[in-house]
């Protein structure tokens, strides 16, 4: 392809992520109506790939695609998977699982919002206790990786408990899918969700739920609480018509087809190792500049690091953000309750050299602000 190179920005925010030029340019295609068979074929293959990425058996699992940001999946799963007279249990240990509870609240659904400490992974024993305590629970919901803090939750163990009591296990895997290896069966999952702009390193606007087909069929007669995000309706339409019910994000789908091709070329394990090497490069830089982090390393996803602001009157997040931003690096505010933190993330098509370059830039920026380096607490 002889398109010009696009200016490369190193995004250290928690998605959208840095993409390859080949993915960017995959969007440049002849105009097409998405109701054409040719486009339907692309969607069909994409749905199958999305299931295969999490080692799902195509006879058992299916992908349901939506036009929207990742939150559309939370909306769809929470609103569509709870039978009449039953409840959803939300294991809430951060901002993203809290969003699941908020959706339940907005749809006036009977739900249990089990608030757990946000600076540690979900305690499986507490989850089991809550499941046992209420026979009306039909669905157990949690987030794999709380992107706000960087905490990784033990979904395999939680899934095992959910299945022991015959509950449907729904997990928000938006910030781990296609980064940390996931296996639908081994990890005891029934429904997971993700969005093209995160682990797949594609464009925004395409989100998808991977679900157990038998359970999707069962949900046919569940109370309908939403129209646009009804999971069964979208599933049924894709199954019978081979297309999304409403207009798909056409260009993002082309980009995502290319991103999936690049995903298979790299391979699950090599990609996960690259993300981990970025995380190590982040810690190397933080340690060198004396920064402190919030979450113990062994509790982390290795995809997001929450960094504490230094205790220096000259430090100002916006100023340092703007300094590095003007030089091609994007950093992001934190989300660990009210603690003054910012986040550095290991998403996207970046390499450890990019992270090293970022820390050189960060050091210059801190010094130009008059912040003492190594930083002080
Ligand atoms: C990014 C993300 C989402 C989706 O957020 P949007 O802003 O709607 O794209 C959902 N869950 C998790 C865990 C995420 O990291």
UniProtKB/TrEMBL annotation:
Class of this enzyme: transferase
Sorted UniProt keywords: Aminotransferase, Pyridoxal phosphate, Pyruvate, Transferase
Binding of substrate, residues: 343
EC code(s) of this entry: 2.6.1.37
Sequence positions bearing N6-(pyridoxal phosphate)lysine: 198
Coiled coil: none
Catalytic activity: (2-aminoethyl)phosphonate + pyruvate = phosphonoacetaldehyde + L-alanine
Entry's Gene Ontology molecular function annotations: 2-aminoethylphosphonate-pyruvate transaminase activity
Subunit structure: Homodimer.
Family listed: Belongs to the class-V pyridoxal-phosphate-dependent aminotransferase family. PhnW subfamily.
PANTHER family in UniProt: 2-AMINOETHYLPHOSPHONATE--PYRUVATE TRANSAMINASE (PTHR42778:SF1)
NCBIfam families membership: PhnW-AepZ, PRK13479.1
Name this polypeptide is given: 2-aminoethylphosphonate--pyruvate transaminase
Lineage: Bacteria, Bacillati, Bacillota, Clostridia, Peptostreptococcales
């Amino acid at each position: 392809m002889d398109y010009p190179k696009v200016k490369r920005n190193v995004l250290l925010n928690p998605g959208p992520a840095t993409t390859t030029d080949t993915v960017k340019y995959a969007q440049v295609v002849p105009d097409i109506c998405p109701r054409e068979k040719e486009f339907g074929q692309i969607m069909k293959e994409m749905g199958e790939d999305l299931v295969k990425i999490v080692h799902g058996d195509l006879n058992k699992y299916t992908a349901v695609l939506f036009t929207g940001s990742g939150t559309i999946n939370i909306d769809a799963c929470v609103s569509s998977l709870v039978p009449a007279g039953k409840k959803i249990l939300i294991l809430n240990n951060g901002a993203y699982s809290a969003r699941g509870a908020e959706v339940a609240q907005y749809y006036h659904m009977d739900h249990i919002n089990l608030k757990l400490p946000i600076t540690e992974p979900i305690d499986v024993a507490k989850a089991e206790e809550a499941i046992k305590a209420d026979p009306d629970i039909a669905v157990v919901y949690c987030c794999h990786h709380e992107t706000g803090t960087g905490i990784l939750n033990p979904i395999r163990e939680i899934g095992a408990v959910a299945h022991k009591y015959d509950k449907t296990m729904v997990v928000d895997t938006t910030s781990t899918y296609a980064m940390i290896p996931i296996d639908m069966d081994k990890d005891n999952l029934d429904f997971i969700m993700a969005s093209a702009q995160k682990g797949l390193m594609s464009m925004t606007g395409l989100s998808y739920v991977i679900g157990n087909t038998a359970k999707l069929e069962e949900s046919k007669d569940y109370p309908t609480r939403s129209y646009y995000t009804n999971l069964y309706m979208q599933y049924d339409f894709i199954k019978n018509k081979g297309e999304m019910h409403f207009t798909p994000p056409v260009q993002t789908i082309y980009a995502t087809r290319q991103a999936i091709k690049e995903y298979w070329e790299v391979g699950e394990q090599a990609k996960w190792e690259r993300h981990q090497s970025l995380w190590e490069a982040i810690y190397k830089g933080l340690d060198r500049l004396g920064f402190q982090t919030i979450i113990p390393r062994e509790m982390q996803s290795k995809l997001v690091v929450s960094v504490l602001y230094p205790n220096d009157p000259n430090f100002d997040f916006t100023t340092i953000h703007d300094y590095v931003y003007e030089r091609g690096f994007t950093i992001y505010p934190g989300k660990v309750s009210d603690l003054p933190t910012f986040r550095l993330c290991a998403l996207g098509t970046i390499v450890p050299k990019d992270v090293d370059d970022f820390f050189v830039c960060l050091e210059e920026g801190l010094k130009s602000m008059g912040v003492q380096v190594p930083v002080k607490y």
